[in-house]
Amino acid sequence: MTSPTLLILAAGIGSRYGSLKQLDPIGPNGETIIDYSVFDAIQARFGKVVFVIRRNIEQEFRDTLMQKLSKHIEVEYVLQEIEKIPAGLAIHTERQKPWGTGHAVLMAKDIISEPFAVINADDFYGADAFRVMADFLQQAHEGEYAMVGYQLNKTLSEHGTVSRGVCNTDSNGFLLEITEHTKIAPTKDSIIYMDENDHAVAINPEAVVSMNFWGFTPRFFDHLERSFTEFIKENAQTITGELYIPTVVNQLISRGEASIQVLESNASWFGITYREDRNRAIEQLKKLISSGEYSDMRWIK
Protein backbone atom coordinates (compact mmCIF):
# COMPACT_ATOMS: atom_id res chain seq x y z
CA MET A 1 0.00 0.00 0.00
CA THR A 2 1.44 3.38 -1.07
CA SER A 3 2.13 5.88 1.70
CA PRO A 4 0.44 9.26 1.21
CA THR A 5 2.35 12.47 0.64
CA LEU A 6 2.01 15.68 2.64
CA LEU A 7 1.89 18.89 0.58
CA ILE A 8 2.69 21.97 2.68
CA LEU A 9 1.72 25.39 1.33
CA ALA A 10 4.47 27.76 2.42
CA ALA A 11 4.48 30.43 -0.28
CA GLY A 12 2.31 32.97 1.55
CA ILE A 13 3.78 36.35 2.26
CA GLY A 14 2.27 36.73 5.74
CA SER A 15 1.51 40.44 5.38
CA ARG A 16 -0.61 40.69 8.54
CA TYR A 17 2.04 38.92 10.63
CA GLY A 18 4.84 41.19 9.49
CA SER A 19 7.55 38.61 8.76
CA LEU A 20 8.20 35.14 7.37
CA LYS A 21 6.12 33.30 9.97
CA GLN A 22 6.56 29.91 8.26
CA LEU A 23 10.12 29.81 9.63
CA ASP A 24 9.41 31.44 13.01
CA PRO A 25 10.77 29.29 15.89
CA ILE A 26 8.04 28.81 18.51
CA GLY A 27 8.95 25.47 20.14
CA PRO A 28 11.11 25.19 23.28
CA ASN A 29 14.13 24.15 21.21
CA GLY A 30 13.51 26.52 18.31
CA GLU A 31 11.04 24.29 16.42
CA THR A 32 8.71 25.82 13.85
CA ILE A 33 5.08 24.85 13.35
CA ILE A 34 6.29 23.09 10.19
CA ASP A 35 8.55 20.88 12.33
CA TYR A 36 5.56 19.72 14.36
CA SER A 37 3.49 19.07 11.24
CA VAL A 38 6.24 16.97 9.70
CA PHE A 39 6.75 15.10 12.98
CA ASP A 40 3.02 14.30 13.13
CA ALA A 41 3.03 13.26 9.46
CA ILE A 42 5.92 10.85 10.01
CA GLN A 43 4.16 9.31 13.02
CA ALA A 44 1.03 8.90 10.87
CA ARG A 45 3.14 7.13 8.20
CA PHE A 46 3.19 9.69 5.45
CA GLY A 47 6.01 8.79 3.12
CA LYS A 48 7.05 12.11 1.60
CA VAL A 49 6.75 15.85 2.20
CA VAL A 50 6.51 18.37 -0.63
CA PHE A 51 6.68 22.12 0.02
CA VAL A 52 5.31 24.91 -2.13
CA ILE A 53 7.49 27.97 -1.64
CA ARG A 54 8.44 31.14 -3.47
CA ARG A 55 11.81 31.80 -5.04
CA ASN A 56 12.64 34.65 -2.67
CA ILE A 57 12.74 32.26 0.32
CA GLU A 58 14.29 29.31 -1.49
CA GLN A 59 17.78 29.56 -0.02
CA GLU A 60 16.53 30.24 3.52
CA PHE A 61 14.14 27.31 3.20
CA ARG A 62 16.91 24.98 2.05
CA ASP A 63 19.23 26.10 4.85
CA THR A 64 16.63 26.13 7.62
CA LEU A 65 14.25 23.27 6.92
CA MET A 66 15.11 21.02 4.01
CA GLN A 67 18.54 20.06 5.26
CA LYS A 68 17.31 18.79 8.64
CA LEU A 69 13.96 17.30 7.56
CA SER A 70 15.48 15.25 4.75
CA LYS A 71 17.29 13.16 7.38
CA HIS A 72 13.95 11.74 8.48
CA ILE A 73 11.64 11.72 5.45
CA GLU A 74 11.84 12.29 1.71
CA VAL A 75 11.52 16.03 1.04
CA GLU A 76 10.96 17.91 -2.21
CA TYR A 77 9.82 21.41 -3.07
CA VAL A 78 8.28 23.33 -5.94
CA LEU A 79 8.11 27.05 -6.65
CA GLN A 80 4.91 29.05 -6.91
CA GLU A 81 5.51 32.18 -8.95
CA ILE A 82 2.99 34.49 -10.58
CA GLU A 83 4.44 33.93 -14.06
CA LYS A 84 3.59 30.21 -13.93
CA ILE A 85 0.40 30.50 -15.98
CA PRO A 86 -0.64 29.31 -19.47
CA ALA A 87 1.38 30.82 -22.30
CA GLY A 88 -0.01 33.79 -24.17
CA LEU A 89 -1.54 35.59 -21.17
CA ALA A 90 -0.20 38.90 -19.88
CA ILE A 91 0.06 39.57 -16.14
CA HIS A 92 -0.80 42.97 -14.66
CA THR A 93 2.45 44.90 -14.14
CA GLU A 94 1.58 45.60 -10.48
CA ARG A 95 0.73 41.99 -9.61
CA GLN A 96 2.80 40.72 -6.66
CA LYS A 97 0.68 38.11 -4.86
CA PRO A 98 0.59 34.44 -5.92
CA TRP A 99 -2.60 33.12 -7.56
CA GLY A 100 -4.02 31.44 -4.44
CA THR A 101 -4.07 28.00 -2.84
CA GLY A 102 -5.56 26.33 -5.91
CA HIS A 103 -2.61 27.47 -8.01
CA ALA A 104 -0.20 26.49 -5.23
CA VAL A 105 -1.40 22.89 -5.17
CA LEU A 106 -1.29 22.72 -8.97
CA MET A 107 2.46 23.47 -8.88
CA ALA A 108 3.04 19.98 -7.41
CA LYS A 109 1.27 18.11 -10.20
CA ASP A 110 4.45 16.73 -11.78
CA ILE A 111 5.98 15.33 -8.59
CA ILE A 112 2.99 13.81 -6.76
CA SER A 113 1.43 10.64 -8.15
CA GLU A 114 -0.05 9.19 -4.97
CA PRO A 115 -2.87 10.24 -2.59
CA PHE A 116 -1.85 13.38 -0.75
CA ALA A 117 -2.88 15.76 2.01
CA VAL A 118 -2.65 19.55 1.85
CA ILE A 119 -2.00 21.84 4.82
CA ASN A 120 -0.93 25.42 5.51
CA ALA A 121 2.62 25.90 6.74
CA ASP A 122 1.62 28.28 9.52
CA ASP A 123 -1.24 26.24 11.03
CA PHE A 124 -0.93 23.62 13.77
CA TYR A 125 -3.42 20.82 13.12
CA GLY A 126 -2.70 18.25 15.83
CA ALA A 127 -1.43 14.67 15.71
CA ASP A 128 -4.85 13.01 15.53
CA ALA A 129 -5.78 15.04 12.45
CA PHE A 130 -2.82 13.55 10.59
CA ARG A 131 -3.75 10.05 11.75
CA VAL A 132 -7.34 10.23 10.55
CA MET A 133 -6.30 11.78 7.24
CA ALA A 134 -3.61 9.15 6.65
CA ASP A 135 -6.16 6.39 7.36
CA PHE A 136 -8.55 7.91 4.84
CA LEU A 137 -5.92 8.32 2.13
CA GLN A 138 -4.68 4.76 2.52
CA GLN A 139 -8.11 3.55 1.38
CA ALA A 140 -9.31 6.37 -0.89
CA HIS A 141 -10.31 5.71 -4.50
CA GLU A 142 -10.15 8.27 -7.30
CA GLY A 143 -12.80 10.93 -6.80
CA GLU A 144 -12.98 10.31 -3.03
CA TYR A 145 -11.64 13.32 -1.19
CA ALA A 146 -11.70 14.53 2.40
CA MET A 147 -11.07 17.43 4.75
CA VAL A 148 -10.54 17.62 8.50
CA GLY A 149 -13.19 19.81 10.10
CA TYR A 150 -12.73 22.02 13.14
CA GLN A 151 -15.22 23.81 15.38
CA LEU A 152 -15.46 27.53 14.58
CA ASN A 153 -15.25 28.85 18.13
CA LYS A 154 -11.95 27.01 18.60
CA THR A 155 -10.29 28.66 15.61
CA LEU A 156 -10.64 32.37 16.37
CA SER A 157 -8.01 34.97 17.21
CA GLU A 158 -8.15 37.31 20.18
CA HIS A 159 -6.29 39.94 18.19
CA GLY A 160 -8.39 40.53 15.10
CA THR A 161 -10.92 39.17 12.68
CA VAL A 162 -10.47 35.99 10.65
CA SER A 163 -11.94 34.44 7.51
CA ARG A 164 -13.32 30.91 7.62
CA GLY A 165 -14.93 28.50 5.19
CA VAL A 166 -18.11 27.28 6.90
CA CYS A 167 -19.13 23.75 5.91
CA ASN A 168 -22.61 22.53 5.09
CA THR A 169 -22.73 18.72 5.33
CA ASP A 170 -25.33 16.01 4.77
CA SER A 171 -26.46 13.45 7.36
CA ASN A 172 -23.59 11.14 6.41
CA GLY A 173 -20.88 13.73 6.95
CA PHE A 174 -20.22 14.53 3.30
CA LEU A 175 -19.61 18.12 2.26
CA LEU A 176 -22.40 19.86 0.37
CA GLU A 177 -20.83 23.32 0.13
CA ILE A 178 -18.28 25.62 1.72
CA THR A 179 -19.27 29.23 2.23
CA GLU A 180 -16.52 31.74 2.91
CA HIS A 181 -17.25 34.26 5.66
CA THR A 182 -14.95 37.19 6.36
CA LYS A 183 -14.33 39.45 9.34
CA ILE A 184 -15.41 36.81 11.85
CA ALA A 185 -14.98 37.84 15.47
CA PRO A 186 -16.36 36.96 18.90
CA THR A 187 -18.58 39.45 20.69
CA LYS A 188 -19.76 39.43 24.28
CA ASP A 189 -22.69 37.13 23.53
CA SER A 190 -22.00 35.50 20.16
CA ILE A 191 -19.78 35.15 17.12
CA ILE A 192 -20.48 37.35 14.10
CA TYR A 193 -19.27 37.87 10.57
CA MET A 194 -19.77 40.81 8.23
CA ASP A 195 -21.89 40.16 5.14
CA GLU A 196 -21.49 41.72 1.68
CA ASN A 197 -23.41 44.80 2.90
CA ASP A 198 -21.12 45.08 5.93
CA HIS A 199 -23.91 44.04 8.28
CA ALA A 200 -23.10 41.94 11.35
CA VAL A 201 -24.63 38.43 11.18
CA ALA A 202 -24.56 35.89 13.99
CA ILE A 203 -23.05 32.50 13.22
CA ASN A 204 -23.22 29.18 15.07
CA PRO A 205 -20.15 28.94 17.34
CA GLU A 206 -20.08 25.16 16.82
CA ALA A 207 -20.23 25.34 13.03
CA VAL A 208 -17.70 23.09 11.28
CA VAL A 209 -15.10 25.06 9.34
CA SER A 210 -12.30 24.19 6.96
CA MET A 211 -8.79 25.11 8.06
CA ASN A 212 -7.30 23.99 4.74
CA PHE A 213 -6.46 20.41 5.73
CA TRP A 214 -7.48 18.47 2.62
CA GLY A 215 -7.01 14.96 1.31
CA PHE A 216 -6.98 14.25 -2.45
CA THR A 217 -6.14 11.59 -4.97
CA PRO A 218 -3.97 12.46 -8.01
CA ARG A 219 -6.93 13.10 -10.33
CA PHE A 220 -7.58 16.28 -8.36
CA PHE A 221 -4.70 17.87 -10.28
CA ASP A 222 -6.68 17.49 -13.50
CA HIS A 223 -9.66 19.26 -11.93
CA LEU A 224 -7.36 21.99 -10.65
CA GLU A 225 -5.76 22.51 -14.03
CA ARG A 226 -9.15 22.89 -15.68
CA SER A 227 -10.39 25.32 -13.02
CA PHE A 228 -7.21 27.38 -13.03
CA THR A 229 -7.21 27.66 -16.82
CA GLU A 230 -10.77 29.00 -16.69
CA PHE A 231 -9.89 31.33 -13.80
CA ILE A 232 -6.70 32.79 -15.24
CA LYS A 233 -8.26 33.62 -18.62
CA GLU A 234 -10.55 36.03 -16.76
CA ASN A 235 -8.18 37.17 -14.02
CA ALA A 236 -4.67 37.45 -15.50
CA GLN A 237 -4.93 41.23 -15.42
CA THR A 238 -6.17 41.49 -11.83
CA ILE A 239 -3.91 42.57 -8.98
CA THR A 240 -5.50 40.50 -6.20
CA GLY A 241 -7.69 37.77 -7.75
CA GLU A 242 -6.93 34.26 -6.45
CA LEU A 243 -8.23 30.72 -6.98
CA TYR A 244 -8.85 28.93 -3.71
CA ILE A 245 -9.15 25.20 -3.00
CA PRO A 246 -12.73 25.54 -1.63
CA THR A 247 -13.81 27.17 -4.90
CA VAL A 248 -12.63 24.14 -6.86
CA VAL A 249 -14.17 21.76 -4.32
CA ASN A 250 -17.53 23.51 -4.60
CA GLN A 251 -17.35 23.19 -8.38
CA LEU A 252 -16.68 19.45 -8.16
CA ILE A 253 -19.56 18.91 -5.73
CA SER A 254 -22.01 20.86 -7.88
CA ARG A 255 -20.98 18.84 -10.95
CA GLY A 256 -21.19 15.54 -9.08
CA GLU A 257 -17.57 14.77 -9.95
CA ALA A 258 -16.29 14.06 -6.44
CA SER A 259 -17.34 13.34 -2.87
CA ILE A 260 -15.69 15.10 0.07
CA GLN A 261 -15.94 13.44 3.46
CA VAL A 262 -15.61 15.71 6.49
CA LEU A 263 -13.37 13.81 8.90
CA GLU A 264 -13.78 14.09 12.64
CA SER A 265 -10.74 14.44 14.88
CA ASN A 266 -10.08 15.16 18.53
CA ALA A 267 -7.12 17.35 17.56
CA SER A 268 -7.02 21.05 18.43
CA TRP A 269 -6.09 23.62 15.82
CA PHE A 270 -4.18 26.81 16.41
CA GLY A 271 -2.50 29.24 14.10
CA ILE A 272 -0.60 32.51 13.95
CA THR A 273 -2.64 34.99 11.98
CA TYR A 274 -1.37 38.04 13.85
CA ARG A 275 1.97 38.52 15.56
CA GLU A 276 0.13 38.74 18.88
CA ASP A 277 -1.09 35.15 18.39
CA ARG A 278 2.47 33.87 18.77
CA ASN A 279 2.52 33.81 22.57
CA ARG A 280 -0.73 31.84 22.72
CA ALA A 281 0.66 29.31 20.26
CA ILE A 282 3.77 28.90 22.39
CA GLU A 283 1.65 28.27 25.50
CA GLN A 284 -0.53 25.72 23.71
CA LEU A 285 2.56 23.88 22.53
CA LYS A 286 3.91 23.81 26.10
CA LYS A 287 0.69 22.16 27.29
CA LEU A 288 0.90 19.50 24.58
CA ILE A 289 4.52 18.82 25.42
CA SER A 290 3.70 18.56 29.13
CA SER A 291 0.95 16.06 28.33
CA GLY A 292 3.48 13.84 26.57
CA GLU A 293 2.30 14.50 23.00
CA TYR A 294 5.71 15.92 22.00
CA SER A 295 7.97 14.73 24.78
CA ASP A 296 11.08 14.65 22.60
CA MET A 297 11.52 16.77 19.48
CA ARG A 298 15.32 16.63 19.48
CA TRP A 299 15.23 14.28 16.46
CA ILE A 300 14.18 17.20 14.27
CA LYS A 301 17.49 19.00 14.74
Short description:
By secondary structure, this protein is of the alpha/beta class.
Q: Which band does the percent of strand residues land in?
A: 25-35%
Q: What does the radius of gyration come to?
A: 19 Å
Main pleated-sheet profile: 11 strands, mixed
Quaternary state reads: single chain
CATH superfamily: Spore Coat Polysaccharide Biosynthesis Protein SpsA, Chain A
What is the approximate shape? globular
Structure write-up:
- This protein has 301 residues and is of the alpha/beta class.
- The chain has a single domain (5-300), classed as Alpha-Beta Complex (Spore Coat Polysaccharide Biosynthesis Protein SpsA, Chain A), CATH 3.90.550.
- The chain is 28% helix and 25% strand.
- It has seven helices and 13 strands.
- The chain has helices spanning 33-43, 58-69, 101-106, 127-139, 220-235, 245-255, 277-290; strands spanning 5-9, 48-53, 74-79, 116-120, 123-124, 144-151, 162-169, 175-186, 191-194, 200-203, 208-216, 259-263, 270-271.
- Strands 1, 2, 3, 4, 6, 7, 8, 9, 10, 11 and 12 form an eleven-stranded mixed β-sheet that branches. A two-stranded antiparallel sheet has the order 5-13.
- Strand 8 and strand 9 form a beta hairpin.
- Helix 1 crosses helix 4 (127-139).
- It is globular and about 50 Å long.
